[in-house]
């Protein structure tokens, strides 16, 4: 690899730090939470406005924009069908309440940008954009064509990408910087289940995990109000000690006014928030390639007087959605609930760990980070689950300031933040990766 060229690229990366911060702040200012569909905006005006903002960002620097659908766009430094796609998403989860910073009036604080979507993943989007612009400025000629793709429904179903794939041919290889280094070559499957009690509870209404208060549960029970809260956690790593639903169930189970017939329902709620690997359901099977099953119970609604609980299951490739469905159904029936909705939202995938692209990307990432990590299986959900020949590659952006309380600053959390140092490190890794791919057959 040309060391003189690498030094030039690294110097340019240092010089764009302020522009990187400003563009990240600008994109965070677009509140791209999913909303009601509108003409030309299938996931609401916010996600669509985000796509428009990225198009304008690209046009500012002379990039070539493509609107594939109303929910997927790309910007590229050159015209033509891309061979390599770098996929990010512009939509974000709801901000919730309890921020110390304004979630959409982002600010730079102690080397970080703080705002909703900072690290998931508007900061990464701006980092890739500025890196491609550096390549364009330095007139670096690649023997393949590259484009930055941006979707708008990654956080709530990936229907943007599913629609794209029914109409367009994806790039030959894709990189998804919505995970960690060194490189992810496979990912778990995902199944969403909704279960409802067969009868209303006596004297109790329960809600939990609502859009505006995603880590809060509330019950009206026997003339009193109970409110419980838990620390924000990403769905790929729930707390084995439970969450706000666990706390609420505990309090209700201790109430002497609780009807014996309602006890099994609350015990089910408690169990499903504690048994995060599905051991009691026989779902924590050994896997040769992936970590075990993860079950998250993080929301309860009231429907016609009946509590309705939402389960999100992530499972290894050796397990099937049908097996999970049968196990949960049997347990639910025994506790007075039934499954009213099941949706497979993410298929498990597995590429060859020894594919030269995988091993080379891992080498490059470890060289810059100073780590000696192995390629891994992605625990969360990314666009790589849907795209062929897709790898999760970085960017490890969430490194909150030291004075943030534990739990603050993470993706989906309160005061979400992205480290500018981490973004610039990721740009250096990606620069070397793009040059390495120029020297390989793939």
Concise structural overview:
31% of the residues lie in helices and 24% in strands. It has 442 residues and is an alpha+beta fold.
Question: Distance between termini?
Answer: 18 Å
- What is the β-strand count? 19
Radius of gyration: 23 Å
Envelope shape: globular
Q: What's the multimeric state? A: single chain
- Secondary-structure content class: alpha+beta
List the strand order in the largest sheet. 1-2-6-3-7-18
Helix count, DSSP H or I runs of 4 or more residues: 10
The helix-strand sequence is HHHEEEEEHEHEEEEEEHHEEHEEHEEEH
Relative helix content: 25-40%
Unreliable spans: none
Please indicate the percent range of residues in DSSP E strands (runs of 2 or more): 15-25%
Describe the largest sheet.
6 strands, mixed
Overall mean pLDDT stands at 95
Describe this entry's structure for a reader.
With 442 residues, this protein is an alpha+beta fold. Strands 1-2-6-3-7-18 form a six-stranded mixed beta sheet. It is globular and about 75 Å long. The chain starts with a helix and ends in a 5-residue tail after the last helix. The mean pLDDT is 95. α2 packs across α4, α4 packs across α10 and α9 packs antiparallel against α10.
């Amino acid at each position: 690899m040309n060391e003189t060229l690498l030094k030039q690229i690294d110097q340019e990366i240092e010089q764009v730090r302020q522009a990187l911060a400003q563009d990240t702040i600008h994109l965070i200012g677009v509140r791209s939470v999913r909303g009601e569909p509108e003409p030309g905006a299938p996931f609401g005006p916010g996600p669509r406005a985000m796509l428009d903002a990225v198009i304008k960002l690209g046009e500012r620097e002379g990039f070539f924009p493509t609107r594939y659908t109303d929910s997927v766009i790309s910007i590229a430094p050159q015209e033509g069908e891309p061979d390599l796609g770098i996929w990010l998403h512009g939509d974000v989860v709801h901000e919730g309440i309890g921020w110390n910073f304004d979630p959409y009036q982002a600010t730079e604080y102690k080397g970080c940008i703080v705002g909703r979507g900072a690290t998931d993943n508007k900061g990464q989007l701006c980092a890739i954009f500025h890196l491609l612009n550096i390549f364009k400025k330095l007139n670096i000629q690649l023997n393949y064509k590259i484009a930055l793709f941006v979707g708008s429904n990654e956080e709530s179903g990936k229907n943007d990408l599913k629609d794209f794939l029914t109409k367009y041919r994806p790039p030959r290889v894709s990189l998804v910087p919505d995970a960690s280094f060194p490189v992810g070559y496979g990912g778990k499957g995902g199944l969403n289940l909704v279960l409802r009690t067969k009868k209303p509870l006596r004297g109790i209404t329960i809600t939990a995990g609502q859009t505006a208060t995603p880590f809060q549960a509330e019950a009206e029970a026997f003339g009193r109000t109970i409110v419980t809260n838990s620390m924000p956690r990403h769905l790929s790593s729930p707390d084995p000690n439970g969450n706000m639903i666990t706390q609420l169930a505990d309090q209700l189970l201790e109430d002497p006014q609780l009807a014996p017939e309602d006890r099994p329902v609350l015990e089910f709620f408690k169990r499903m928030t504690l048994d995060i690997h599905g051991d009691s359901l026989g779902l924590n099977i050994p896997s040769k390639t992936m970590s075990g099953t993860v079950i998250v119970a993080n929301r309860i609604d009231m429907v016609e007087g009946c509590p309705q609980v939402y389960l999100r299951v992530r499972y290894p490739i050796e397990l099937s959605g049908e097996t999970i469905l049968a196990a949960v159904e049997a347990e639910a029936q025994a506790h007075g609930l039934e499954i009213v909705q099941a949706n497979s939202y993410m298929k498990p995938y597995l590429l060859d760990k020894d594919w030269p692209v995988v091993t080379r990307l891992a080498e490059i990432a470890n060289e810059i980070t100073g780590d000696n990590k192995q390629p891994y299986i992605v625990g969360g959900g990314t666009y790589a689950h849907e795209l062929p020949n897709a790898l999760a590659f970085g960017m490890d952006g969430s490194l909150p300031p030291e004075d943030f309380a534990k739990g603050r600053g993470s993706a989906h959390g309160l005061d979400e933040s992205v480290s500018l140092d981490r973004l610039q490190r990721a740009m250096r890794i990606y620069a070397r990766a793009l040059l390495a791919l120029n020297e390989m057959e793939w």
